[in-house]
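Model it.
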Amino acid sequence: MTMIKYLKYSTKEFLSQWTSYLILFFSINVMLSIVVTFFDIVISTVLLKQGVPFLSYTNLEVLIEKPVVLISLIILLLLLIYAIYFQFAYLLIGIKRIYQRQFNMWFVFKEAFLSLRYHALKSFPFFIFYFI
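Modeled.
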């Protein structure tokens, strides 16, 4: 298939399913807004409750003095990587389902959530790199 034919085919395919793509990307943005707000509130609360005004490379000794902060931040980092995996899986599964003409946002959400059990730990190193 030449480049022009492929471009025409891809454009036609996208235009025939543009509402599904719009729903997919809108739902990802809503999920990201919720996740970012959640992590912001939780991290701020943990730091405030432990008496840490802010976290930067200049006050990293706080992590040694207050192990609750360190453990909390590690747990939140692991949860964040799971959230990143979920977002990535949701996007890829959604695009696959749109291509197969079987797009259902709730089914894609469920399938991405179920994939957390089987694939997230195997791909942890990749998503740490992806996150950074």
